[in-house]
């Protein structure tokens, strides 16, 4: 697994610098590093994050994920404990979602 | 005649129309403002109503008083906005307005129905908001006779209007109960979806230590899933529960329903807007100002104020077919009431987080950035006069629109 991430660049908080360097193997490796075991339900979210990024250049908000997939907020918190917005972005190889202030 | 249409006569719409009327040729342009409310609310005043510092009557004035002569003012709800056809329909007499240029300044409002259980049983009994005239008035009445217990301040979801207001509320509550001689009977808890008191690191650290000093408990990363009004408990998605005797909620904030009806907003009904030019991302003759837009800046009057000048420059250039010169930097500037007649002040933009120092001048200030001072507090209270008599009349203030690093201290 370590090999997969060897050539990938991350920022200080563990978000990928370049979203185009992402692939499914990289996602698996990031997940392991974050203590997650990816299931089909994780992949529903990850694929939606990637699609949204391709279209808008940004990671989707939680509200956006729950509105456009069948994954509801409660499940999102179970899939990505400790902040699903940030964790889903991290595993999807996207930048940290911008805080709204 | 060409038609310039402004939707909304709140902080942003009112400032814009007062400045626009001096710039557009009256022989060539008709300017119309549509607003559903009779009154213009001074929203920063709502914070002070629960504590009796302001009376409800101190927070509003008639809208028309701030609409300049020569501008048509229509008091009506808006049915739909159809930018593909340059057309807006109103509820009043089903009137249709065909426009050449449109400014959307329809704001944001709190939506308690978005959080499960928030409107059940406890709403306006021991659950209140302070973002509405009714909510802040009802909370003020409740606090007059409250005997104490656990007061929980909660933010449902970001973004919210005036993101520092819930913090100010809890600081003022600490002062209010101390003054009443009952602080030891009140437990103060701040349950926030953010990882700390605030998002930006330096301000979060400063405000976090103030919370500690004032014996206010912070419950970070608390994403509310619902309220059990029978048990007086709020629950988070990750399974935490916090009991309350009094819940002061900042409900989900969303853009106006007309944005959703018209299908021109994002998931929270905010209109996708270029964060630099303030032009709509979809229509060139549409600009979006104030809380109605989705730009990643604070939803606050200060942001509306600093952005109006940029938007006006861009609108005028666009009308003349020139390149738009204005580039908004996300400048925000907010007083933070910290209680005991003191306040702090933060000044920041898209790229620069709030830093300590003095404002607007180095050393002399007189305002202190990221520190508490009495002068800041008088600045905040004096701001009401400035709001009505200077800003809403469309006059400038002697402060730079763009963020200035003068007086700010880096490490």
What does this 3D model show about the protein?
The complex is a heterodimer of chains A (101) and B (411). Chain A is mainly α and 101 residues long. Chain A has 6 helices and no strands. The radius of gyration of chain A is 13 Å and the shape is globular. The termini of chain B are far apart. In chain B, the strands form 8 sheets. A 5-stranded parallel beta sheet of chain B has the order 5-2-1-9-20, with no helix packed on it. Chain B has a 5-stranded parallel beta sheet with strand order 11-18-12-13-14. In chain B, strand 1 (2-7), helix 1 and strand 2 (29-35) form a beta-alpha-beta unit. The mean pLDDT of chain B is 94. Chain B has 411 residues and is of the alpha/beta class. The longest helix of chain B is centred in the C-terminal third of the chain and has 19 residues, at 301-319.
Topology of helices and strands:
The complex is a heterodimer of chains A (101) and B (411).
Chain A: H1 2-6, H2 24-33, H3 40-56, H4 62-68, H5 73-79, H6 84-91
Chain B: E1 2-7, H1 11-20, E2 29-35, E3 39-41, E4 60-62, E5 72-75, E6 78-82, E7 87-90, E8 96-98, E9 101-104, E10 108-110, E11 127-128, H2 133-145, E12 149-155, H3 165-179, E13 186-191, H4 201-213, E14 216-219, E15 224-228, E16 233-236, E17 241-243, E18 246-250, E19 253-255, H5 257-261, E20 286-288, H6 301-319, E21 332-339, E22 342-348, E23 357-361, E24 365-369, H7 374-391
Helix pairs in contact in B: 1-6
